[in-house]
Amino acid sequence: MIRTKWLTALCATVCMATAISGMTPGVAATLRYGGTTPPLTMDPHVTNDFVTTALVRQIHDTIVDLQDDMQIGPGIATAWTYQGNNTWRFKIREGVKFQDGTPLSVDDIIFSIMRQKGSPLYTALFGGIKEAVKVDDTSVDVISNGPDPILPRKMVRLFVMSQAWAKANNVEKLPDLGAQGTEAYSLRHANGTGPMQLVSQDPGRKTVFARNANYWGPFPGNVTEAIYTPIGSSPTRVAALLSGELDLITDLPIQDIERVKSTPGFHIEQVPQQLSMFLEMDGTRDVALDVFDKSGKPLQANPLKDVRVRKALSLAIDSKLIVQRVMRGQAVPLSVGGAYGMDGFQKDLDTGRPYDVEQAKKLLAEAGYPDGFAIQLNCPLERYTNADEICRAVASMLARVGVEVRVKGMVWPEFARMLVNGPSSSFHLIGGSGNSGDLQDTFVSIMATRDKAKGRGGTNWAMWTNPEFDAVVDELVTTFDPAKRTELYRKGLTIARDQVQGIYLFQPVLSWGMKDSVSASARADAAVMLQKVQIKP
Amino acid sequence: MLAFLLNRLFHALLVVFVVSVLAFILGDVVGDPVASILGLDATPADRLALRTRLHLDEPAVLRYLYYVQNLLHGDLGVSYAAQRPVSALLAERIPATVELAAVALTLSLAIGVPLGVYAAVKRRQMLANALMTLSVLGVSLPTFVVGILLIFCFSLRLGWLPSFGRGEVVTIGFWTTGFLTASGLKSLIMPALSLAIGQIALVARLSRAEMLNVLKSDYIRFARARGLKNRAVYFSHALRNTLIPIITVSGIQLGYLVAFAVVVEQVFQWPGMGLLFLQALGQTDLPVISAFLMVAALFFVGINLVVDLLYAVADPRLRIKTLSARS
């Protein structure tokens, strides 16, 4: 606020600001909106960037629809049943047309499944699919290598593309990631069955959509044209909204929320993002990386392997305070794995982590560290909101129990390299998001023991390991009965909580700012669903 | 003259070579392209496959040779993130940056030189001193602060100028220009001004200092003794000699303006090379990073070459020297 006042005063003297408001009435039914980064491609199968996916979702439908509350619903498939024998049967909607006017057929579905499955970005999600087989003109069987109870859930990320169009434009095969050659046609052109069609994609400048007149589904909003502009600098993005150049912005920075709210003619929409911020601690190494005694000599041990130390660290970190101070209230405290809105998430188990410095000190002493120790906390910068401040808050909280934390900030490429080429970190902050939105994915990739052969623990970067938990995962991935699954989710979450698999902090809240004339509800996947946006003239 | 040119060219090639090595090393420092392309969720097998296909598993020296070989064939590679040829990406972005830098340079000369001359000629007047004090402010204000301040005034408060982008552009052959549309011109004002403000101050201070120096020299005294009017002394005798260092500095500044418009481009979402470079750094997009550095180096080298030649035009002594050396 102080900054704003200062700017106002300065501006008044420099340019003698007149009381002209910068607002111009938006042309009816055109939505001009902005976010942080440009879409990388219009080909939905060769990106998993979440900004790109959110935009591509406007053009391409997914086989199963991802609804606004992140639950699944009928989309291109109207119904699905498990046939036994690792086979799911999907009933395909009739009368659907692609944006170029050609009708959607089961062959297009099979083509899309096999094309996206081949993408190295989607091996974790769709690598288990063996084949897709046409049953009749309106149904298709998807056969996996093993039983897959959450396959329909995963299908919210399988985008439908026209085979004939792909063939005609020579993109039947996936464009090679990073390979030599010329530009693939699907990079800047698209032909889906979604509510909007692509008019133009000018990479890095703007993406223009127009309403798809042939859309099969409901189109409750009145947007006929939408223009997306990436604006990386947040002050500029907010200024573009408040000056009326944009109607809506996603990624409203925390410090500007009050400002937008208090400006007449604007309001904000918020929703907790499907992302949990937590600290991972080395659970495997006998000698942890970058751990020292108080005199600075490397420690020939891994204190983090001792559950008493893990508990002590958890007790010493007050996530409510972090939410209040660092996140300015724009986050929801979280104490267990997963996130609100995920299938299988057990809200009642999220009772909050206790905060007790005395107890923490006692546990550390019991574990043989009465004077604490020193440790490096690896911290990814810029990727997550206020990550640097979060790490520093953690450091000062742990200092109170005698654990000296050295925060090592790294830009994302450097941080990612450390993880995927190692993983070589014993203590770090990271954000976890479920791939498909089912807690099972979190169990399998983030919490299960790292095991290449089984395809488990792919993103378990601090190598926490617990045989009891792994047994739960083994059972969960083959269990279809919902009641039994709930029981397994609860069992798994309880083990992970009691053994302190990670120190969960919070789930950040997404904020969008928009003009009062625009109504759009924020979604946890950050997608602005253009067919539902209403613009008053 | 020919020897002079060859000498310069050799230096230029050396610089380009060193930059290409540096660009190559930098790419290895900032991150791992495979981790950036595939993200955290990919399987180790997929990672390995991609690493092999991108030749990233081979020794650095060999990779550098591939890189140079492609460069010599005019192939800058394909951007990992954009999945398009880097040459196409750069071709799209260069006009925006060049137009921005050119306007900023023009502004800085058009405003800076008269200011400096005025301050030198009337150096005992209040206004001249005030202007010089103000120029210290101009030099010391960071570009992004100026940018955000301008946006706050002219976009947010007054609503006169767009806060981001380049407006409508007109395509002429391979070039896109914002000079021919109203929205293009309006979009250009604030970015060019924020980029120019530091330069205006710099040019003004430089011209003042040089002008003061020149005014003290003998030939000015003789010119006055000849009874020439002030106007003639200042503008046809003094200014001409003042211009030489200004040309040098402006030339180098143009290189800076092009290569380091990064900050301004980020603030105003100006679709130029700088913005592309920033995004590439965030994505470990090695081909784009090294291509940007190469283009920037070529720019610097090219401009320096031109500046050296301009010297000869502006300063007859240099011309005579080289001519006499040849004969």
UniProtKB/TrEMBL annotation, chain A:
Matching InterPro entries: Peptide/Ni-bd, SBP_5, SBP_5_CS, SBP_5_dom
One GO biological process term: peptide transport
Superkingdom of origin: Bacteria
GO MF term (any one): peptide transmembrane transporter activity
Record's keyword terms, sorted: Signal, Transport
Stretches assigned to the Solute-binding protein family domain: 72-435
An annotated GO cellular component: ATP-binding cassette (ABC) transporter complex
Subcellular location: Periplasm
Signal peptide residues on this chain, from the entry's feature table: 1-28
Family per record: Belongs to the bacterial solute-binding protein 5 family.
Name of the protein in its database record: Peptide/nickel transport system substrate-binding protein
Annotated organism of origin: Chelatococcus asaccharovorans
UniProtKB/TrEMBL annotation, chain B:
GO cellular component: a single term: plasma membrane
Domain (ABC transmembrane type-1) ranges: 94-311
Transmembrane segments: 12-31, 100-121, 133-158, 243-268, 288-314
InterPro entries listed in its UniProt record: BPD_transp_1_N, MetI-like, MetI-like_sf
Keyword rRNA-binding: no
Gene Ontology BP term (one): transmembrane transport
Membrane topology: Multi-pass membrane protein
CDD domains xref list: TM_PBP2
SUPFAM superfamilies named in the record: MetI-like
Main location: membrane
UniProt keyword annotations, A-Z: Cell membrane, Membrane, Transmembrane, Transmembrane helix, Transport
Domain of life: Bacteria
UniProt xrefs under PROSITE patterns: ABC_TM1
Keyword Transmembrane helix: yes
Pfam families reported in the protein's UniProt record: BPD_transp_1 (PF00528), BPD_transp_1_N (PF19300)
UniProt family annotation: Belongs to the binding-protein-dependent transport system permease family.
Protein name: Peptide/nickel transport system permease protein
Organism: Chelatococcus asaccharovorans
